[in-house]
Specification:
heterodimer; A: mainly beta; seven-stranded mixed β-sheet; four-stranded antiparallel β-sheet; 11 strands; 0% helix; B: mainly beta; globular
Chain lengths: 115, 113
Amino acid sequence: GAVVSQHPSWVICKSGTSVKIECRSLDFQATTMFWYRQFPKQSLMLMATSNEGSKATYEQGVEKDKFLINHASLTLSTLTVTSAHPEDSSFYICSAARTGVYEQFFGPGTRLTVL
Amino acid sequence: GQQLNQSPQSMFIQEGEDVSMNCTSSSIFNTWLWYKQDPGEGPVLLIALYKAGELTSNGRLTAQFGITRKDSFLNISASIPSDVGIYFCAGRRSTGTASKLTFGTGTRLQVTL
């Protein structure tokens, strides 16, 4: 149990376009989902925390208008990178926590490359 | 954002050797977690620690929650090639909630035959 999927696993886009990444909890309901960004050879940095049905809470320094997060259901959260630029190229990882279990289960990540 | 300090940053060891790594913080955490990340994948939870002084094992892995609540240790015994990867510690301040994690800087482990 506690499987989290992400789609797509990788994406290449042109500068200025928007990209949507999906995070799904496949076999449990996730009341809270988290979005992380990881640059090469670096650690995971939390971008935002989202609870189902409410607005996401962004970490300091993360532009909420650039990284749009929607947590519309208990099994799906989406991250949209708007007007992507090369510096947004990174590995984006989501995690989900289910009700009554406080540990986060991570998705396999999405590699975004902006040309 | 804040990161936890892990050491060593990287290590080369021979198959069969034991491995030790640690994670330190300037502030207290109430939960310590250890994850392993393979290239191009998300982290996988190895061990979770919930009480200061707690010592927990998972197969060849043993982790301890430091008494001061500012550090944690992970040991891997009799390493094998599939132990290769990056190990991250993570701390959480709140108990009883799915609150955010602070990750360590990572320890890259390479195992030679």
